[in-house]
Structure formats: structure tokens, C-alpha cells
Amino acid sequence: MSRVNTVLGPVPAAELGFVAVHEHVGYGMPGSELDTQWWKTPEQRYAETVPKLRRFREHGGGTFVDVTGICNGRDVDYYKSLSAKTGVHIVACTGFVGGDTALPHFARASVDYLNRQFVHEITVGIGDTGSRAGVIKVGVSRGGRMTELDKRIYRAAARAAVMTGVPILTHLAIDPEPAVAIFEEEGLPLHRVLFGHADDGPNAPNTPHEWIFERGGRIGFDTFGYETELADPPFWARPRRERLEHFLSLVHQGHLDQLLASADANCSPLGWPGVRGHTVNYLFEDLIPDLRDAGVDQATITKLFVDNPADFLTIHS
Ligand SMILES: [Zn+2]
């Protein structure tokens, strides 16, 4: 039976429902938990997060994929209680947002060590939570080129994906040639990889979308809502219309099967103020209305948010 690991246990892929495939319960840079200025009590984090997940559920949201890697504030016991409280399936990840967010213990580790860590978190559990990771996160460090450490993490992740059948989700789709070479060397079919952040302001122009599609990779338009129209836009913002039109052009060119969409929002940011006014509910409150206005039908919306993520997240054994 096709199934997906959530923090409360495996669920059939058909029960995931509407999926937000790239999100964060709480994301911060390594060490931000030690900054007095940013300490948050569990009550404060709950108060910020629960209403957003409840609203997501009310809108018809089924599954929230948290891709906060190791060292960035991942907190699986907390995710379990949020899932139980709100009824939203939460999928947690193993892996790292990028080499540049891996603490020295991991930054010095071999491919073999990292691989065993990822496989353990997928097949046994994350720490003592009993929850198994449902996706593997990897990424390109700041600077626009994959570093030696990024490549070590990608190779360990590729081996873990082949061994366990869990898919890989990337932070950034720039400089994909070394990544694709590693995946091919390790025998991982590229439809098991979602190349993320292919839509943001600085990275969209540098991402070879066609080249990734041709090789069978999936593309994530997963920063929807980070717009230059926001009161205080982040550096990765992009004009709303421009992103939407770019996305629609790929749909119209026949790439719907390989596309996924999400908001990359942060329910309760750790160590930084976050981006005000942006939540996972952008998907229901802004993106889907924009898609409908552009003439996109319900079947396409279902494919994008239900069928494609279920196919991607299903453990291939
Ligand atoms: Zn993210």
C-alpha cells in the first residue's frame, strides 16, 4: 500500500488531501535558540502557530510538509502535538537546508555518516520521538554554487532516498548540474527529486527550468506570496503577477505533472522577525483565487495540490 511518514505515523497517500509541500512550523538559523532576544516560550509558539494551522484545516488543508532541516529549529515532539491538536497531518524531514546551516559536527561528517543519520531518521525515527522522516531536505549554500559540503549532503541524501524510497526536496534549483550528476551516479530517478525555490526573485532567472524538466525532475514554485508588493518584502521577493505568469506559462507548456506549489511560510519564526503578513494560507486565500481568475480549472488545482504531492511523497519500496 502506498504510504507516507507523518509525525503521528504512516498514513495512506490517498489520505493526505490538499498538501502544502514546502512549509515551516518554525525556522531559524543555527544558534538562534541561544539568543536571549529571541527566546519564545512554548505558549508563545503555540499561540502563533495553532490559529494558522486551524485555518489551513478549515480551508480544506490536509497535510503540511515541514522542511526545516536538522540544526534549523526542527522540533518533532512539538509537531506531534500541533498535529494532534489541529488535525493537520505534518510530515517532518531529515537532512539540511544547505551545507551552510549544518553545524560543525555534521559539516565534518563523511557521506557514509550522513547517510546513516538520514536512513535512521527515516526508518527508525528522529531522536526518541518515534516519528519517522517523510522527506529528505538538501540545499545549495549561499553563494550560488554547490559547495563541497553541499555535494556530500546531496550524495548521502541520494543514497538514503534509494535505500528507503523517501523523496528529496531541495532548497534552490540553481547550479543543478552537479546535483543531477550525483543523483544519476547514485541511481536515483529524478522524479523522486523536487527542485525547490525555482520561482523566487533572485533565483528564478538563474534556474534552468527546461533542463530540469527534460531530465524528469520536478520543479517547486514554492515561495508563492513572497511578493514585492508586501509592506516589507524580503530580498527573495518577486512581483506577484510575474511569478504567476511564469507559473502559468509552464502549466500551459505541458509541465503540470512535474510542478508543485507552496508558500514556504514560517508559522512562528525563530531568531528573526519573519515576513509579516505571509502564511501558508496564502495558498487558499490568494493563489487559488489568482489561478481561477486566470482560467485554471479545478482538475488542474487538484492535480497540483493533491495528486502530484501524493505521488511525490509516497514511499517507493
Ligand atoms: Zn523553506
Automatic annotation (TrEMBL):
Family matches, as SUPFAM superfamilies: Metallo-dependent hydrolases
Top-level taxon: Bacteria
Keyword Cell wall biogenesis/degradation: no
Alphabetic keyword roster: Hydrolase, Metal-binding
N6-carboxylysine, modified sites: 137
Pfam families (alphabetical): PTE
UniProt family annotation: Belongs to the metallo-dependent hydrolases superfamily. Phosphotriesterase family.
Protein name: Phosphotriesterase
Taxonomic source organism: Saccharopolyspora cebuensis
Organism lineage: Bacteria, Bacillati, Actinomycetota, Actinomycetes, Pseudonocardiales
